[in-house]
C-alpha cells in the first residue's frame, strides 16, 4: 500500500481543527481547517490525500474528549515524517514525559531530551511542531512566564489550554466557557 494522508476536522471552542494522519499515525494538526490548510499539509507531507474516516476517528474522539474537559494524555501513534531529527528528539520527549496539567520550561525540556541546544532553540522546535495539542507544546513555558505560542491566535490560546488543564489558575476575568 502506498503512503497517503487522510484529513478529519473537529469543531471546538477554539475553532475548527484540522487533523491529518498517515497509515503510521497522526502527522498534522492545524488550528484552522480549510482548503489552504489541507493543501499546505499535503504538499509538506508529499503524499496523496485519501478519504479514510476510520484512520482519524481515534484522534478526533480524543480531541473531543479533551475539549469536553476530560483530562487526557494522548496515546495515539505519531508519524514524525514532518519533523527534523532534532524536532523528533525533543517532541518525542515532550509527548512521552509532560502529562496533562503539568508544564516544563524550555530549558528543562532541552535537558530532558538531551538535545544539546539552548532554550531558545527548544522554543523554535515548539514553534515548528506540526502536531500541536496532541504533542503538547503548549505545556512548554519560559522560566519567567508563559513564553510564546504559534497555535491558534497565539499566547492567549496557550493560556486558555493551560487553564483548561489546571496548570494555570483561572483568573477573575477568564471564563473557561469562552475561548479567545
Verbal overview:
This protein is α/β, with parallel strands linked by helices and 180 residues long. The chain folds into two domains: 5-67; 85-164, Arc Repressor Mutant, subunit A (Orthogonal Bundle), CATH 1.10.10.10. It is 37% helix and 14% strand. The protein contains six helices and six strands. The chain has helices at 35-45, 53-67, 85-97, 106-113, 119-127, 155-164, and strands spanning 5-12, 15-21, 26-30, 49-50, 104-105, 140-141. Strand 1 and strand 2 (15-21) form a beta hairpin. Helix 3 crosses helix 4 and helix 4 packs across helix 5. It is globular. The relative contact order is 0.14. The mean pLDDT is 92.
Question: Which properties best describe this structure?
Answer:
single chain, 180 residues, alpha/beta, Arc Repressor Mutant, subunit A, 2 domains, four-stranded mixed β-sheet, two-stranded parallel ribbon, 6 helices, globular
List the helices and strands and how they pair.
Elements: E1 5-12, E2 15-21, E3 26-30, H1 35-45, E4 49-50, H2 53-67, H3 85-97, E5 104-105, H4 106-113, H5 119-127, E6 140-141, H6 155-164
Parallel strand pairs: 1-4, 5-6
Antiparallel strand pairs: 1-2, 2-3
Number of strands: 6
**Dominant shape:** globular
Which percent range fits the helix content?
25-40%
| Distinct helical segment count | 6
Sheet bearing the most strands, described? 4 strands, mixed
Q: What is the CA-CA span between the terminal residues?
A: 42 Å
CATH class of the largest domain: Mainly Alpha
Tally of domains: 2
CATH architecture type of the largest domain: Orthogonal Bundle
Radius of gyration: 16 Å
Order of adjacent strands in the largest pleated sheet: 3-2-1-4
Structural class: alpha/beta
The CATH homologous superfamily of the largest domain corresponds to Winged helix-like DNA-binding domain superfamily/Winged helix DNA-binding domain
InterPro entries: MethylDNA_cys_MeTrfase_AS (IPR001497), MethylDNA_cys_MeTrfase_DNA-bd (IPR014048), MethylDNA_cys_MeTrfase_DNAb (IPR036217), MethylG_MeTrfase_N (IPR008332), MGMT_N_sf (IPR036631), WH-like_DNA-bd_sf (IPR036388)
GO biological process, one term: methylation
GO molecular function: methylated-DNA-[protein]-cysteine S-methyltransferase activity
Keywords: DNA damage, DNA repair, Methyltransferase, Transferase
